[in-house]
Amino acid sequence: MLGFRNYWYPACQSGELKRRPLSITMLGEQLAFFRRDGRAFATKDECPHRGTPLSMGKDEFPGTNSVACRYHGWVWDLEDGRCLAALTDGPDSPVVGRVRVRTYPVEERKGIVWVWMGNEAPVPVEDDVPRLLARDDTKIRVVKGLTYGNWRAHAENIGYGHALMLHRDSIWVLTRQNPAFMRNFTPYVSEDVDGEWVADRSEEIVRQAEYPGLGTWPTLKGKPWRYRKGGRLSTDLFGLKAFISLGLPGINRVLNFPLRGGIYYEFYVPVDEDHYRLWQITCTWPKNPLDAVWQALRYYAWGRPAGVRRFIQQDKVMVRHSSDFAKRQGSYRPSPKIYRPDAFHALWQDYANRTARGVGLDVTSTNGTRSEAEAEPAEETHAL
Amino acid sequence: MLGFRNYWYPACQSGELKRRPLSITMLGEQLAFFRRDGRAFATKDECPHRGTPLSMGKDEFPGTNSVACRYHGWVWDLEDGRCLAALTDGPDSPVVGRVRVRTYPVEERKGIVWVWMGNEAPVPVEDDVPRLLARDDTKIRVVKGLTYGNWRAHAENIGYGHALMLHRDSIWVLTRQNPAFMRNFTPYVSEDVDGEWVADRSEEIVRQAEYPGLGTWPTLKGKPWRYRKGGRLSTDLFGLKAFISLGLPGINRVLNFPLRGGIYYEFYVPVDEDHYRLWQITCTWPKNPLDAVWQALRYYAWGRPAGVRRFIQQDKVMVRHSSDFAKRQGSYRPSPKIYRPDAFHALWQDYANRTARGVGLDVTSTNGTRSEAEAEPAEETHAL
Amino acid sequence: MLGFRNYWYPACQSGELKRRPLSITMLGEQLAFFRRDGRAFATKDECPHRGTPLSMGKDEFPGTNSVACRYHGWVWDLEDGRCLAALTDGPDSPVVGRVRVRTYPVEERKGIVWVWMGNEAPVPVEDDVPRLLARDDTKIRVVKGLTYGNWRAHAENIGYGHALMLHRDSIWVLTRQNPAFMRNFTPYVSEDVDGEWVADRSEEIVRQAEYPGLGTWPTLKGKPWRYRKGGRLSTDLFGLKAFISLGLPGINRVLNFPLRGGIYYEFYVPVDEDHYRLWQITCTWPKNPLDAVWQALRYYAWGRPAGVRRFIQQDKVMVRHSSDFAKRQGSYRPSPKIYRPDAFHALWQDYANRTARGVGLDVTSTNGTRSEAEAEPAEETHAL
Questions:
Q1: Which of B50, B58, B70 to mutate to test the interface with C (most CBs of C within 10 A)?
Q2: Is the bond into B249 cis (omega within 30 degrees of 0)?
Q3: Which residue of chain A has the CA closest to C64?
Q4: How far apart are CA A194 and CA B251, in angstroms?
Q5: I need a surface site. Which of A159, A211, B14, B299 has the fewest CB within 10 A?
Q6: Nearest CA in chain A to B324
Q7: CA C45, A310, A7 angle in degrees (round to 5)?
Q8: Which of A166, A209, A212 lies nearest to residue C70, judging by beta carbons?
Q9: What strands, in cross-sheet order, belong to the sheet with A29-36?
């Protein structure tokens, strides 16, 4: 299994889906997306007759919610998937009403087409779109692309451990003194105004430490431009507490990134065993038209190139390597070689396996199936 | 199994085989082709000693029908495959006459090198080259290339069903009103002046029809350039009746394509599981030298670009997709999701499995082997 | 198994390993190479925590022999592989001293970094670097590159059989009349000033012969530029006797190639099943500075382009094909289709299997494991 199926996932942006259908592979299946009279539809992108893609089909009967397969002219109802006609066999073709193609529930919110690929009845899409993202006054900006690796490796990238080392030399933190580590770091599951998330807290941010046999770290000498004290960024946005959080079915939320006062969401949409589609959505709340212009300027001149692109590129390189590592190891659980910040990953894996809708996926195993041994609570393995 | 082996297949054009040997992969094997004193020869393209390609070999003894492997100088008789010498081991080398490379019967007809890769004794090449193509007064023009997909998917593309939908928007039918469907369509096996073929007939060509819940199809409004009534093209060529036919081991014949008065043959030569070589041979019968010039003009200015290239490109895209579909399904038999025009495919599969020389290949199964269940007659599954 | 593991192999040139670590795949494993205070180190190129490459790591504590993983800041001792710190978990991280990454012994000789990947304790590197190559007064020049094929196919390329046929038309032998074959050719194991080698001798070099049914070979008519008698080149270098020799773990030595008075070594370093790294080392012994300039001129103007590059390129093409052949056959043993010059290969396979340090690899089998049948002496199969 490639991901938790009983969730709404972003498929494409509304503006991308026009008269020309789209073919999008998600959760291991190839889907075709159509727009008819302003409404979006999704089917399996395979004509049941000869298997050619319905996304290559033609709108032979404008005004109806149908598509005609380009190969032999079988016409499909985009709503319920029934075969409405087989044009080249005449109106009395015996296949009419006797064959069906799979269709998928589709909703549009915030300029994004969301699709439900679950085996259970869909929940309201409002349950799955983070509530702050979904607000009417939220201005969103999207960057997305196919990325090498397994989405679980990116989900498990989240946490402060990598941020303090990997992103230390990113241009986005050019002027900040990144701290060394967090003392008494504790992950927890939090319910906030935006939904339910795995979040973290710690007692103290240690800016510099002495490592036996090695020396002081980090040293800032020779880097006068790092004049600002780093650490937790202000988290007064909407009363949220955790700087970085992780939610189901695979959403990362970061406060004040890539712009102060904004919220950044990453959606990890599984494509196949070795690829996922990374959605990077930056949310801002402009107070007035002038503020909107100012935020756009900050986003395009700084936030997108330095944050959304280059900062996250560092993560993507590591996700590529740790995906390959998980395949070599046969597991996404890093035990027994974990250290204290990995408690975040362990809690996420445990939380996801316990609470996700539907059953069957185990985020810790490489093939996604749940074995007896893996299904047990993971607490014992948190500590080395 | 990749194809019916006990047939003559086109390998290359005579003009391509000069002093430099050719390496051509067909029916899953790599063959080397040679020319010696005007005569063509074929061997397995692998020296039995170290496996290096004999097509890289040298003609060290001009005047003899032999080739010397470039690696260690083992010399092979191109006629019977015997080892004639191992040059770097001296004239008394013990391998002489003790090792053999496989050779293949080769014939040249109409400027094409035909090869027999069967396990039975070869039939006369005249049995396998379509008789109209083989006539002395036939002018042939060849386009060929390696194509993605399984040859069986291209063979099963043949039939009127796809033509009326897929090719509807091809520039080759720009001025014609393509009809909607054929009433009482019946495929049959026909013996004609050109050999034995699976062909079809129908009672009526229906130009336009009303499809319940959808509307009239096709509509021609706004397309005044489609002024000509389409339908069956004249089939008075050599008394042939069927516009499109399919013969063993995988040959498609179309009348009046791409030029009126001409015949078009497609040979599907299996290469490996995912590729075949598509030979597109256009035949014309010029009445005099001026007519020959006129036909050449029509071919190069219209028939080849619009017909041989662009029209058939539409098929190649669909063959790619339906080949992949057959692999996913594990079968080339589209049952139970077939419609009436698929009777042509079903008859072809049944005919090919029953009458092809040799045994073992089942054109309906993806791996080509014949299972008990599949070996039974297919009539019951023709209808939905 | 990919090669004999209990040997020193060349990894890179000393000059290539500077401040920036290198990632090199050898014998199926990815290694990271580092330089600290002039000294070279090697580790498995995989952080035990999340599997990201240590060759992407940072030298966070200059002056210590350590590397910090770029992902989460785990610091590793390059000498013994101990975890020295987990920076983002603070100085008291419980993983310190509890996890270890594999390190490999490294030595530098003659400007080359040699690495020991064996499962036994390393022998002195002097045992494995050919002694003439290792001499202080030897001037070496290196060309190396990743090559398609299995190293064993290149080792088995060695011998006079291929040279007299394959290299006959190389520009490097432009002016020489290559002979036809060697009479009473006998391979043997030789211990000389340079180490232990599989070498060969023969009673007579036959320059031309008459092959029944084919004719005289080689003929030199029309090639007046081939005025020099070929045959064994002078072998008076350091008292060595064999023109071409083959040593463990996969080293080819050729006298007077590509320059008269020089010695040429080829090291075959296994990379994966389908690739090896070919090291081509030309040794010369200049008598004085002026001679050094003259030899450099001969090397760069003639020896490297005509010998090291083009002459050996002919071998590489054949090795590619015979590697593929061995995979198809499932064996590197060419029996029963061998001829007398193959006695060299048979002796090499037998010698390597019998005397190489460590156990387990069988050079004749494609997967490298030793079966009961293959482990028996190979003498019976030398003759056809």
A1: B50
A2: yes
A3: A214
A4: 64
A5: B14
A6: A51
A7: 90
A8: A166
A9: A22-26, A29-36, A39-44, A103-104
For residue B91, the chain C residues in CB contact (below 8 A) are: 209-212
Long-range contacts of range A349-355, CB-CB < 8 Å, 24 or more positions apart? Answer: A349/A156, A349/A378, A350/A377, A350/A378, A350/A379, A351/A189, A351/A198, A352/A4, A352/A248, A355/A248
Alpha-carbon distance C219 to nearest alpha carbon in chain A (angstroms): 58
Prior bond of C187 cis (ω within 30°): no
B176: which strand partners? Answer: B228
B48, B66, B88 ranked by CB distance to C214: nearest: B66
The set of residues, in sequence order, having a beta carbon less than 8 Å from that of C252 and lying 6+ positions away, is C154, C155, C158, C244, C245, C246, C265, C266, C268
Residue B222 contacts by C-beta under 8 Å, 6 or more apart in sequence?
A: none
* Cα C118 → chain centroid: 17
> In terms of DSSP bridges, do strands A176-177 and A228-229 run parallel, antiparallel, or are they unpaired?
parallel
Q: Which two tokens stand for residue B297?
A: 């003009």
Give the pLDDT confidence of C208-260 residue by residue, as tens digits.
999 999 999 998 777 888 877 765 555 678 888 888 999 999 999 999 999 99
- Predicted local distance difference test score (pLDDT) of residue A383: 33
State how far residue A39 is from chain B, nearest Cα, in angstroms. 18
d(CA C181, CA A194): 84
**Which of chain C's residues have a Cβ under 8 Å away from the Cβ of A211?**
61, 75, 84-85, 87, 91
Q: Are B197 and B189 in contact (CB under 8 A)?
A: yes
B153-199 pLDDT, tens digit each: 999 899 889 999 999 989 998 888 889 999 999 999 999 999 999 99
Whole-prediction pTM: 0.91
Calpha distance B367→B361 (Å, rounded): 9
For residue C309, the distance in angstroms to the closest alpha carbon of chain B comes to 18
What residues contact C148, with CB distance under 8 A and at least 6 apart? C274, C275, C316, C319, C320, C323
Mutate which: A88, A92, A95, A101, vs B, most B CBs within 10 A: A88
Residues of A in contact with C60 (CB under 8 A): 214, 217
Following DSSP, what letter does each residue of B341-370 receive, concatenated? GGHHHHHHHHHHHHHSSSS---TTBTT---
Give the span between the Cα atoms of A156 and A168, in whole angstroms.
Answer: 19
- Residue B70, SS3 per DSSP: coil
What is the pLDDT, as a whole number, of residue A220?
78
Average pLDDT over residues C279-295: 97
Contact assessment for residue C110 and residue C138, using Cβ atoms and an 8 Å cutoff:
yes
Contact A355, A7 (CB under 8 A): no
Chain B residue with minimum CA distance to C163: B72
Domains of chain B: 8-125 (2.102.10.10), 130-329 (3.90.380.10), 340-381 (no CATH)
- 3-class SS of residue B160: helix
Pairwise CB contact (< 8 Å): A88 & B180: yes
The pLDDT score that the predictor gives to residue A364 is 75
CB contact under 8 A, B161 and A88: yes
In this prediction, residue A232 has a pLDDT band, given cuts at 50, 70 and 90, of low
Contacts for A205 with CB less than 8 Å, ≥ 6 apart: A179, A182, A183, A231, A232
Look up residue A363 and give its amino acid: V
Residue B116 CA to chain centroid, in angstroms?
Answer: 15
Above 80 in pLDDT, residue A371?
no
Q: What three-state secondary structure class fits B37?
A: coil
Quick check: A70 and B212 CB within 8 A?
A: no
Closest residue in A to B341 (Cα) is A89
